Amino acid sequence: MDVSHILDPLNDAQRLAVAADAGNLLVLAGAGSGKTRVLIHRIAWYIETNQARPNSILSVTFTNKAAGEMRGRLEQLLGYSAGAMWVGTFHGISHRLLRAHWKEANLVQNFQIMDSDDQYRMIRRLLRAMALDESKWPPREVQWFINGQKDEGLRPKDISSDDDFHLEQMVHVYRAYEEQCARSGLVDFAELLLRAYELFRDNEHLRRHYQDRFRHVLVDEFQDTNTIQYRWLKLLNGHEGNMFVVGDDDQSIYSWRGAQIENMQRFQDEFRDTELVRLEQNYRSTATILAAANALIANNSGRIGKELWTDGEEGELIPIYTAYNEQEEARFIIENVMDWHREGHRFDEAAVLYRTSAQSRVFEDHLRRNNVPYRVHGGFRFYERAEVKDALAYLRLSAFRSDDTAFERIINTPTRGIGNRSVEAVRAKARENNISLWQAMTDILENKLLTGRALNAFQNFINLIDSMTLDIENTEELHEVLDAIIKRSGLIAHYKKDTSGKAEDRIENLEELVTAAQEFEAPPTDDDEPRMDPMSEFLAHAALEAGEGQADIYEDSIQLMTLHAAKGLEYPLVFLTGMEEGLFPHQRSKDDIRQLEEERRLCYVGMTRAMKKLILTHAEVRRLYGQETYPQVSRFIREIPRELISSVRFGNPESSSSSDEYFDEEPHKQGLGLGQRVSHNTFGQGVILNLEGSGSHTRVQVNFEEVGTKWLVAAYADLQMV
After folding, report:
1. Residue 530 and residue 525: Cα distance in Å, rounded?
2. What are phi and psi of 169, to 5 degrees?
3. How far apart are CA 244 and CA 221, in angstroms?
4. Which of helix, strand or coil describes residue 186?
5. Which stretches of 130-164 are DSSP H helices?
6. Domains of the chain
């Protein structure tokens, strides 16, 4: 059997991973090392060597875009459709399982997915119903709490308050929220994962069925998995499964979203006979950039460990630019990008990365003044836009009258004379009788419980939704249904009145939604798997897309983005800006070793986005949040070997800074450096967070594991390197 087309394009390490014997395998894939290629070729290897049938393969990734690209590349490699395989996101695959087994999952058959914004609205409504002051119980905080508990696999009954009043009240809201979701037939994103996990956990027959079916499970970006995702995979793997996971512990930067970097090590410990393959050859960056990134990340402890290398060009040294302030920093960057463009490069080959979104304002101001096109990467996406969500809410309510979230969103959008008091009367009726808002409204109308004006407004709204339901029933094509609903809703006329200058864009988005419905193709299903109607599948698709924020295709323009948004991207020219203590690493991480190491991983991610040229910038004076600060240069600059940095340029001729300031020799002569683990006779082990002064006056800030953070004089502390 000729499998040369699968193995020949690979390097030695990639080939080792792709052709490894069946079993549990962890592929530690460094930045730019071809991890997606390895995952795709592994699937093709299984099939072409007759080790697996396509329908016995499950491949999981984190975005719909990545899943679509994976399926496309796989079909190109195999030469035929990969429809029999399950390729998708954790949320998408969980949704597919719950649709097939809604009864076993204790759901209604036509349950709907609630996106983050609709979840927030429901929580606000619940807080009002429970007479809880939003200033003391912020809806967003409650939302984070509920989603966080679900990510940890916890229901209200699993949480012990230990006489903590705040926690007890949070659990009370969580319980009421679950009851409301059940009444409305709604599930949120976190619920998809938790409910699918519980489906496997509590149904041995189903669990064994899918364990037997999916003999080969492959997972991309494994370092980003959270607790419930890891447990989900472990249940699915069983005792004899073949789990192939690809990830990089040095690129784990989403702990704030629940990602558990420990899952990388946990996989080796808990999945039987796990083998490890390292992908260290980088196909993206120059040798200089990789050497700097390797030196930086080596300061983190507990890594599985790898060393990126390339057989490509050595590349330029890394310039560090010290600006007087953030205005001069922006001017420097824009001048360099314009020079780059004049040399024949495209604007979109350059990216400006920053730690906090607030930093973008200055860059945007200067770019506008210089008429340089730019785009802030990570803005609102199509299915997150208000006008699109309004139109979909009309469609949802027309098809599912019990959808309270859709009801709340459109009851007075556009305005139709239904005031807050009337809506509150509907809410009270719904709470009192444990019924949907729609049913409460119809009861109020039938029993004439409000004034004639309010009742007329309710009747007009009912007539409108009923007419939309007739459109659904009498029109075959989904896009024609949606077009009719949008026209009946009055949204176009409503948005034409928008005086903010966005009216045209909003209307075009509504028109594009009709096109999206026309082009929509339902995902493949098994022959014995129940198929939803096209409208329900489209609504599920829209909700899942809104949840992940898939990227658009932009015109030629400079890309501005946070470091978190830069993950997975690459650019020939990268500016890493605001390299200052308190900004990057962020102020809140300075006394926490775990957070500090994640900040370093974030810097590593930023550096390895650069293909040809990396420039680091910082300011001596910076105005942030209305205050002027005088920050120290970031420790991350100090952690780059001096020989990899070119002559430092200064924007302020009278600056007292010098290149030697970055590389204070005295602490290093004593073997001390930022991020170094040390031991003290009295305080035990810790990590060096900061260094000040030189010679006998050198002071060291150490975060000790047992006693916390302390400043010590290096000459007398007798610190020993660990």
Report:
1. 8
2. -70, -40
3. 11
4. strand
5. 139-151
6. 4-102+193-281 (3.40.50.300), 112-184 (1.10.10.160), 290-378+555-662 (3.40.50.300), 382-548 (1.10.486.10), 667-721 (2.40.10)
Q: What is the pLDDT of residue 627?
A: 53
Q: What percent of the chain has pLDDT over 70?
A: 91
Q: Please count the CA atoms within 13 angstroms of the CA of 660 that sit on its side-chain side.
A: 6
Looking at residue 385, its amino acid is R
pLDDT of res. 209: 93
Supply the pLDDT for residue 500. 55
**Tens digit of pLDDT for each residue in 447-478?**
999 888 899 999 999 999 999 999 999 988 89
The string of DSSP letters for 468-527 reads HHHHHHH--SHHHHHHHHHHHHTHHHHHHT--SS-HHHHHHHHHHHHHHHHH--PPP--T
Q: Tell me the HSE value of 32 on the side-chain side, using a 13 A CA sphere.
A: 26
Cis previous bond, 414, omega within 30: yes
pLDDT of residue 90: 93
Cβ atoms of 527 and 565 closer than 8 Å: no
Ramachandran quadrant class, 714 (left: phi over 0; alpha: psi -120 to 50; beta: rest): alpha
Structure tokens at 524: 């493949």
DSSP letter assigned to residue 633: B
pLDDT tens digits along 387-413 = 889 999 999 999 999 999 999 999 988
- 3-class secondary structure, 650: strand
663 close to 638: Cβ distance less than 8 angstroms: yes
487 class by beta-carbon count within 10 Å (0-12 exposed, 13-18 middle, 19+ buried): middle
The pTM for the full model equals 0.76
CA dihedral 123, 126, 128, 131 (to 10 degrees): -120
Q: How does 684-703 read in b/e, with b if 16+ C-beta sit within 10 Å? A: eebbbbbbeeeeeebebbbb
pLDDT at 538: 87
Residues 6+ apart with CB under 8 A from 183: 402, 404, 434, 435, 436
CB-based burial label for 332 (10 Å; 0-12, 13-18, 19+):
buried
The tens digit of pLDDT for each residue in 189-222 reads 999 999 999 999 999 999 999 999 998 999 999 9
Tens of pLDDT, residues 224-233:
999 999 999 9
Strand partners, 247: 28
Closest CA to 70 of 81, 58, 59: 59
Which residues are the active-site residues? 35-36, 220-221, 251, 609
Amino acid at 110: N
- The two tokens of residue 499 are 């005086």
**The pLDDT value given to residue 443:** 94
- Which residues are paired to 219 by β-bridges? 60, 245
> CB neighbours of 658 closer than 8 A, spacing ≥ 6?
648
